[in-house]
Amino acid sequence: MEYELIDEFYRFLLLERGFSQHTIAAYATDLNKFLSFLQEKGIESLLHVQPKEINEFIYWLSKKNLSPRSRARILSGIKTFFRFLVFTKRLSSNPAALAEIPKFPKKLPQVLSLEEVERLLEQPDTTTIRGLRDKAMLELLYATGLRISELVRLKLNQINLEAGYIIIMGKGAKERLVPIGSKAINALNIYLEKARYILSNSPSNPYLFIGYQGKPITRQAFWEIIKRYAIQAGIEKSISPHTLRHSFATHLLERGADLRSVQTMLGHASITTTEIYTHITKTHLKETYVRFHPRAK
């Protein structure tokens, strides 16, 4: 098996596509499943794979009791790998090009109500250094709809509090500018003035949000932080940092923001990704109608 070729693919994702190490690790896990299948079939070269093997691989995945969503993700990664082989002229055609990704029902993301968001944002103890940091992170996350990976990697030179915006380097190394509201700006100013320099172990530390031993806070650490505050706030929904991203988008659309603007702020490459939030707002409108219209019931 051409393991050097696979390593080159990972370097391509990192250097050319700007993928994170976390995303590349997920690609590696999925590609290993494909390699296991090929070994079972006695196929020794990736360059000899035919469309028939791809279809058999899809069936092989279905026998592993994987969900349609997981099978779709794995097949998407395989398609990307073979596109890379065509791009680098190892293959003349993509054997996975016509393979159909398994269909699965769209699952609406969990969204907090405005009242739940307010309760969550009130939880950090702003008389403490870490409370000031947590308050600033939560306010900024809800104010901008950032991905958690974007939030924890934020650097000081990406924020302009006077102008009221941040510059984000998102998926695929695509840059976008996202505005910040006054409450998030206020929380950030207080954090920068009173807390960050204490948490940082070096005046040259470039990261905005500091965790253990002066290092940037991790995704896992912030996940635990938001879970703890949700419990304190009495929120019974199972939430994650991504919940505030979903809530940000939904609340904007409910108040009349246009879909293209929300797409730009979220950093979605395709507007069809953003359109899932219109299903949420339609549900909200239906519930409002049934609740308040005198002839709805």
What does this structure look like?
This protein has 297 residues and is mainly α. The protein folds into two domains: 3-87, Orthogonal Bundle (DNA polymerase, domain 1); 114-291, Intergrase catalytic core (hpI Integrase, Chain A), CATH 1.10.443. The protein is built from 14 helices and three strands. The protein has helices at 3-15, 21-41, 51-62, 68-87, 114-121, 129-144, 148-152, 182-194, 196-199, 219-232, 241-254, 259-266, 271-274, 276-292; strands spanning 159-160, 165-169, 175-179. The protein has a three-stranded antiparallel β-sheet. β1 (159-160) and β2 form a beta hairpin. It is globular and about 65 Å long.
In DSSP terms, counting alpha (H) and pi (I) runs of 4 or more, how many helices?
14
Shape estimate: globular
Gyration radius (Cα, Å) is: 23 Å
Structural class: mainly alpha
> Oligomeric state of the chains?
single chain
CATH class of the largest domain: Mainly Alpha
Reading side by side through the largest sheet, how are the strands ordered?
1-2-3
CATH fold title of the largest domain: hpI Integrase, Chain A
Unreliable sequence segments? none
CATH homologous superfamily of the largest domain, by name?
Intergrase catalytic core
Q: Give the strand content.
A: under 5%
Structural domain count: 2
Major sheet size, sense and barrel closure: 3 strands, antiparallel
Write down the secondary-structure element order.
HHHHHHHEEEHHHHHHH
Number of strands: 3
Report the mean per-residue pLDDT as an integer.
86
Please estimate the helix content.
55-70%
